Amino acid sequence: MALDPPPPRAFADFGDGSWVVPPARVLGAPYIAVGASVVLMEHSELWAEPIGGSALPVVHIGDGTRFARFATVWATVGVHIGSNVLTSDYVAIADCWYPPGDVRNNAPGLASAAVIIGDGAYLGCGCFIGPGVTVGAGAYVGEGAVVWDDVPAHSVAQGNPAVACEESA
């Protein structure tokens, strides 16, 4: 498999000023909508393959979002990443339990579930965001956190499993 990313016309949408830096890996580009001024750094992976053969995008990336090196996004039902989201290296976001296209994603008890990352959130180095999780706007997910529950807006989540502490006024 070639490591060159697909051309912008291969995506469902590809905003002005966006970049996919080789050797990033993009699988399922027709199911990925990229906003304006988005950067996907080298060695990162976007993989979208809808369960049930939907023709609609399952990955939506908002304007100004930046993925650092070795970031991974796996999507089968929906990963919605807001605007101006920042990640550090080795971040993983998955709405499924196995790689997209794997029949085990339909297994009872392992249902895929949409992931939502709110505008302006920060995802720290090596963190994992699991199926069905919502990370609120402006939230900070700490380095190495394993997130299985929702993170409220403007809060900090850290640990394994991650625990969120709301910011005090």
Describe it.
This protein is an all-beta fold and 169 residues long. It is built from no helices and 20 strands. Strands 1-4-7-10-13-16 form a six-stranded parallel sheet, with no helix packed on it. Strands 3-6-9-12-15-18 form a six-stranded parallel sheet, with no helix packed on it. The model has no long low-confidence stretch (mean pLDDT 93).
What's the overall average pLDDT, rounded? 93
Given as residue ranges, the uncertain stretches (5+ residues, pLDDT < 50) are none
Number of strands: 20
Overall 3D shape: globular
Main sheet overview: 6 strands, parallel
Rg: 15 Å
Helix content: under 10%
Number of helices: 0
Strand content: 25-35%
Widest β-sheet, arrangement of strands: 1-4-7-10-13-16
- Output the structural class: mainly beta
Measure the end-to-end span: 51 Å
- Return the string of H and E elements: EEEEEEEEEEEEEEEEEEEE
